[in-house]
Design a protein that fits this description.
About 30% of the residues lie in helices and about 20% in strands. The chain has about 375 residues and is of the alpha/beta class. The chain has a single domain, classed as Alpha/Beta hydrolase fold, catalytic domain (Rossmann fold, 3-Layer(aba) Sandwich). A hairpin with a 5-residue loop joins strand 3 (about 45-50) and strand 4. The termini are far apart.
């Protein structure tokens, strides 16, 4: 049976491939771009060959499991070409701005709120206050560091609105400076500046820092920098689909795109991940890559990822590093879903994941 007649299945082919969607790429002339794979040209059998270097050359037919919701199954069935013109940074930002605005509407329909754009310590922020926030929660705040591959804002609404609603606590979403115009450590500096400002009004054990994707990486970086600076730690951290190592590739980086099995992949480059963010910094710098830092004494941390997540290995490896350092670190992995699925307001699993996050924060804020 061909893939055309198996809508609940995906094929993938690996030969040491990587997350091409993480970095902006130069446009190729249309004549040089390979044609997208179709049902007529796709492989239709499982194969496996391991070369002398251990690189796996495989194809797999992967049915969509019955363990996920009908909405998630539909999400995984969306066609995404494996060969398509790469986006410029300008095109990516324009597309993400549209989807981010739509996410604000979708999540606000579920979680009513008031949003005020402001600045703290000279850094732009979005202050999200949930409807029905009790007066008892006025002395607590959540600092969100949004995702978006360090070069866009893909999550300042979708990461903050549901968490504010489910915790009934104000969220301050930090609109940190973006690469490539502002490379590391600009985003870390902005997040630290906002945290210092929040410390003027809130006790550290009444603050949580969290983020998704690039924002999750940034959360881990900020935690290490806070320790280096001798600043008081927040009550908890939320690291949702991250990596802590810009120097080495994890396995999932070579298997999945941001869309799981669908989309374009290329062999992992020898250069550090996100070179436009890293720029001239040593990729083993302990702030840039927290897996090389002394992690002892960091606050309780919740890690969340998903099985078809390009950053699953990065999340799992950083979680292990936290455990080795004696940190109270928990890891939740959702079956079959792609990178940062919890930003999608249409999925029951998104509601579940956001409740996991909110409950963890409340558990540690009320101690």
């Amino acid at each position: 049976m061909t893939p055309l007649h198996r809508p609940a299945a995906f094929l993938f082919l690996l030969a040491s491939v990587s997350l091409g969607a993480q970095q902006p790429a130069a446009q190729q002339p249309a004549a040089q771009q390979p044609a997208p794979t179709t049902a007529a040209t796709a492989a239709n059998a499982d194969t496996s060959y391991i070369d002398a270097q251990g690189t796996a050359h495989v194809t797999r037919v992967v049915p969509v499991p019955d363990t996920i919701s009908p909405e998630a199954k539909q999400r995984l069935s969306l066609p995404v070409p494996d060969q398509a013109p790469p986006e410029s940074i300008e095109q990516r930002r324009a597309r993400v701005d549209v989807s981010t605005a739509a996410a604000r509407v979708a999540w606000t329909n579920i979680c009513p709120n008031t949003i005020v754009d402001s600045t703290l310590a000279g850094v732009p922020v979005r202050m999200v206050t949930p409807d029905g926030m009790p007066a008892a929660n006025n002395d607590m705040v959540l600092e969100n560091l949004h995702g978006g591959s360090f070069n866009t804002d893909s999550g300042s609404y979708s990461e903050s609105i549901p968490i504010a609603s489910y915790t009934k606590i104000k969220v301050v979403a930090v609109l940190y400076r973006l690469a490539p115009e502002h490379a590391f450590p600009a985003a870390v500096d902005d997040a630290i500046a906002v945290y210092k400002e929040l410390l003027k009004s809130y006790k550290p054990d009444h603050i949580v820092i969290y983020g998704t994707s690039a924002g999750a990486i940034l959360t881990a970086e900020v935690a290490v920098k806070l320790k280096q600076l001798g600043l008081p730690m927040p009550a908890a951290l939320g690291i949702f689909s991250a990596l802590g190592d810009f120097a080495r590739n994890g396995d999932s980086w070579s298997i999945f795109t941001l869309n799981g099995f669908s989309g374009h992949l290329e062999p992992p480059p020898p250069a550090p991940h996100d070179s436009y963010y890293v720029r001239g910094t040593d990729p083993r710098d302990p702030v840039l890559s927290p897996i090389y830092a002394d992690l002892h004494g960091l606050p309780p941390t919740l890690f969340i990822s998903s099985e078809r997540d390009a950053l699953l290995s990065g999340t799992a490896n950083l979680h292990r590093a936290y455990l080795h350092a004696g940190v109270d670190a928990r890891l939740v992995v959702f079956d079959a879903l792609p990178h940062a699925f919890w930003l999608n307001a249409k999925l029951p699993e998104s509601i579940e994941a956001n409740h996991f996050m909110a409950d963890f924060f409340l558990e540690h804020l009320k101690n």
